[in-house]
Every structure is written in structure tokens, then in C-alpha cells.
Amino acid sequence: MKRALLPLLLAVAACAPEGAPETESTAKGAEAAVQSVPPETAVAQAAGEVPIAVVPATISLPPGARMAVTTPFSGSIAQIEVQEGDAVRQGQRLATMVSREAMELAAARARADARLKLAEAEARRVTQLAEAGIVAGARNDAAQAALAEARVEAAQTAQMMARGGAAADGLVHLKAPIAGRVSRISVETGGPVEAHTAPFVIDAVNRYSLELQLPERLAGIARPGMAVELAGGFRGTLVSVSPGVDPKTRSVRARASIGAAPGLVSGQALSVTLMGNSGSGAAIVPSAALTRIDGRDALFVQAAEGFAPRTVRVGSSAAGRAVILEGVKPGETVAISGLPELKMQAGG
After folding, report:
1. Which of 117, 163, 233, 315 is the most exposed, having the fewest neighbouring CB atoms within 10 Å of its CB?
2. Cα separation of 51 and 341, whole Å?
């Protein structure tokens, strides 16, 4: 038994010293492999316009962006061709209405057109007779006056029908006055419609207002003309800023205008970024590049032999970007990943 165990013990003793150095070497190789992966970088940009603050906002419609579809006639709805929320073109038909008043107006227009044709023919005949000296000039004047009166009557009835959307057959076609979206329908098929009511309301979709609540610290800083930015890069402009601070909310009310942007709905609450001028010398870097070293803000700036830590002064940070007032210049390259490893290498 002793002779059988001796070769086995010698084999174990021979392998033991070589195992530890091989494991340590493998660990160092793995560490070197990790350190050899370069961090992602970004170039500091000149900060002409920078995010100042992210503030809450509510979408609303400016004056003139919402229009009611009205009719001067009473009647009943024969057909509705749209639903609430539908996008419509200017002049698109929304519904067809049957109206006794519209039928009477259509008949009045037909009579006015007939009288106009008769007055035109009479005026031509009398003019020819007057020029030939057969009738007195006063009779020609009377014929011309009757023609002018017939023209006014025909034009007036035609205008009334056009404004009310009435057709020659007496049907009333309600149409969209602007391009936009149907925000309200207050009638049903077969239901009654009173004169001068609004069965439909259309909201324009190419312009909105933003009702902003700015923090008190921006009082005196925010001013009309400054830009606001929504998610997706859509931008608007401040058009008014309240001169005082609301004593209850300790905020400053402001309004901005913005054009069309996907997903905007009147009454929607969202956050927007107020943009402003940073001043000369400032730079913008991704917020991911910022770290803390010895309790101070810092960046790792690319140098000849790697990345060197550099203390910086941050002006503001919003929308994934940070404004650096001191410590880095536009055009320098900073690390935006692997910051813990860089701190370990720097002894931070």
C-alpha cells in the first residue's frame, strides 16, 4: 500500500507549486483585457444655446386655432361622415342636413335668378329703344334700376346659401372651415339641429400653445424669444412671461408657441426644456461624462497617454446634456463610459 501511494503523493506535490502562478497570471491577463477596452468618448461642443431648466407644461390651443362649425338653418342630420378625433381637410364635408329653411332659401334664389334674367333682357331691349329714340330716357333709367335691384337680390340669396352650406336641392352640407382634427360632435344621425348652434368643433393641428410654470429662480432670466424644446427635438418660442411670481406656487407663469409635433393633444401635460445663452467659453458634454472625485464634479479628458481627471464647474444639466462653464474647452474629447475603471486607474 505504501509503495502504491508514493507515486501519487509525488505527483500532487509536483503539480501544487505550478498551479498558483498560473492562476495569478490568468487573472492579470483578464484584468489587462478589461483595461484594454477603450471607453466611449464624446467631443465637447461650444455652448451657444444650452438647456437652462426642465419645467412642466400643459398643451393648449391659441386663439383662432379652434373653430366651430355652425349653420344659420334649423333642421335634422341626414348623415354624419366623420368621427371625433378624425383628421379633416379644409372644406371637407362633415355632415349633410335636411332643412326646410334651406329649401325655402333655395326656392327664393331660383326666383331671384329668374327675375335677374328677365331684368337683364328688359334692360337690353329698353336701352336699344332709347338709343333709337323710340322711348324716353327716363324709361331706360327705370329699366337699369330694376336690373341693379335684381342683381342685388340674386347676389344676396346666393351669399346666404353659400354661408349656410345650402345646395340648390335644399340640402345643407356642413364643411370643415380649417384643416385640423374633429374635437367635438354634439349631434347624432337623425337628430335635430337648432339654428346658429355648433354641431362640430375643429381644432387646428399646426400650432399649439404651451402653458409653462417656471421656477422662481428664473424670474428675470426667462424672457420672450427664448427657445423651448420638447422630446424629439421639436422646438417652440416663449411669447410671454409673467412679470411677477405666483405667491401660492412660487412659480412664474409663461406661454410659448409651437408648431405641429407628433403626439401633441390639447390638455396634455408634459415636460419641456427651456433653452438660453450660456455665454462665451462654455462647453456642452453628455451628462454621462460627469463623475465625482473628492466631492467635486470632474471629467476624464483625453490626453496623450490616456484619460486624465479634470475638475470642472457645471452650469446646468438637463435633457442628457451638461453645460461646463470651466474646466474643459470646446473640441476636447471626454470619456462617457468606463468611468469607474478610469477612477481606479487614477487612484480616485
Report:
1. 233
2. 30
The 3-state DSSP class for residue 185 equals strand
Q: Exposed/middle/buried for 322, CB within 10 Å: 0-12, 13-18, 19+?
A: buried
Q: Over 80: is that where the pLDDT of 314 sits?
A: yes
Q: What integer pLDDT is reported at residue 124 of this predicted model?
A: 93
Q: Which residue has the cell 429662480?
A: 217
SS3 percent helix, strand, coil of the chain, rounded to 5, is 30, 35, 35
**Contact by Cβ (8 Å): 252, 93:** no
From CA 158, how far away is CA 164, in angstroms rounded? 10
Place of cell 374633429: 182
Instruction: Decide which of 269 and 282 is more confident.
Output: 269
> Strand ranges (DSSP E) for 81-226?
87-88, 93-98, 171-175, 180-185, 192-193, 200-203, 207-215
Nearest residue to 223 (alpha-carbon basis) of 234, 212, 209, 207: 212
Average pLDDT over residues 197-202: 93
| Average pLDDT for 137-149 | 91
Q: Strand, coil or helix: what is 323?
A: strand
pTM of the model: 0.52
Comparing C-alpha atoms, which of 209, 190, 212, 211 is closest to residue 199?
190
Residue 4 DSSP SS3 = helix
**Which residues are within 8 A (CB) of 340 and not within 5 positions of it... i.e. 6 or more apart?**
none
- Residue 67 near residue 201 (C-beta atoms within 8 A): yes
Residue written as grid cell 481627471: 309
User: Which conformational region is residue 157 in: left (phi greater than 0), alpha (psi within -120 to 50 degrees), or beta?
Assistant: alpha
Query: DSSP letter string over 252-308?
Result: EEEEEEEE--TT--TT-EEEEEEEEE--TT-EEEEGGG-EEETTEEEEEEEETTEEE
Q: Could you give the C-alpha distances from 310 to 161, 290, 335, in angstroms and in order?
A: 76, 10, 11
Residue 226 confidence (pLDDT) above 60 = yes
Residue 285 grid coordinates: 458634454
